[in-house]
Design a protein that fits this description.
Shape: globular
Radius of gyration: 14 Å
Low-confidence stretches: none
CATH topology: Diaminopimelate Epimerase, Chain A, domain 1
Helix content: 40-55%
Number of strands: 2
Strand order of the largest sheet: 1-2
Number of domains: 1
Order of helices and strands: HEEHHH
Number of helices: 4
Length: about 100
């Protein structure tokens, strides 16, 4: 639902990624759009979720989250390298959405 609400699927290359934290239920999900799912297996995303959960259990919240963001970014760079086209620099906001 949040993937759709935040229009993460609405990128030119269908390569948006949602890192979803539901703190009340201690739930973490990484949802990648179909363009990136063609390159990255669901088991890879689950490994990132496991590492973040482990860091969170050790109260290393900032390290856990920034580590996952860095790893997601690395996958995006690997499969969708930046172009010199400034019109398509970053299609989604970088700020966290808190509801």
């Amino acid at each position: 639902m949040m993937f759709s609400k935040l229009r993460i699927w609405d990128t030119e290359h269908n390569n948006g990624v949602l890192v979803y934290l539901l703190l009340a239920e201690r739930s973490i999900e990484i949802v990648a759009d179909r363009g990136l799912r063609a390159y990255v297996q669901s088991s890879d995303w689950q490994q990132l979720v496991s590492r973040m959960a482990c860091a969170f259990r050790e109260a290393q919240f900032e390290q856990g989250l920034t580590g996952v963001v860095d790893e997601v970014s690395a996958r995006l760079i690997q499969h969708f390298p930046a172009s010199n086209d400034t019109d398509h620099a970053n299609e989604l906001p970088d700020e966290p959405y808190i509801a």
